[in-house]
Amino acid sequence: MGTGKTSVGRELARRLRLGFLDLDSEVERAARRSIPELFRRGAGRFRRLESAALRRAAARKALVVALGGGTLLRRANRLLVRGTGTLVSLSCSEAAVWSRLRRDEGGRPLLGREPGRRARLRRLLAARRGLYQDADHVVSTTRRNPAQAAARIAALL
User: Fold this and answer.
1) Residue 113 has what pLDDT?
2) H or E element: which one contains 54?
3) To the nearest 10°, the Cα dihedral for 34, 35, 40, 45?
């Protein structure tokens, strides 16, 4: 959340001349509902829709996929990603993520609303750190714009 997955992914796809898919957008399109609305109906329902969208994406070729921040929480999703592609995790300092997200009221259902948003962000990042660090490549976006991050990833690939 807030690391630049969509903007970096889109730029990487352009550089590599591949298709691009944002998994959250795909879930919204398929469900005809926004991510916040889907979360209000239940996180479990959202995660099932997310897994289905990931399976559809994994069946395609020559594609850069920007996963949702919680996609890797499900073991089946981790195995699918590992079996069908290269996993690149974008890391970012908590301060930089907070700077990017703090004005985004309501669009980040897992953060909720004030008060306590920053503390929730800190807990979320800590809880998921291990999943993100287990990627094929980890690229920091703390001091990189999307073009710089995409160039770094392209060089690694």
Assistant:
1) 59
2) helix 43-58
3) 110
Range of the domain at 148: 5-156
C-beta separation of 93 from 122 below 8 A: no
Q: How many CB atoms lie within 10 A of CB 105?
A: 12
- Number of C-beta neighbours around residue 156 at 10 A: 12
Number of domains in the chain: 1
Whole-model pTM: value is: 0.84
**CATH code (residue 134):** 3.40.50.300
Half-sphere exposure of 98 (CA within 13 A, CB side): 14
Cis, bond preceding 36 (omega within 30 deg of 0): no
Residues 6+ apart with CB under 8 A from 133: 89, 91
Q: Where are the alpha helices (DSSP H) in 71-133?
A: 75-84, 94-101, 117-133
- 155 CB-near residues (< 8 Å, 6+ apart): none
Give yes or no for a contact between 47 and 56, defined as CB atoms under 8 angstroms apart: no
Q: Across the 157 residues of the chain, what is the mean pLDDT of every consecutive 10-residue run?
A: 91 98 96 90 92 97 93 95 95 81 59 68 80 91 96 97
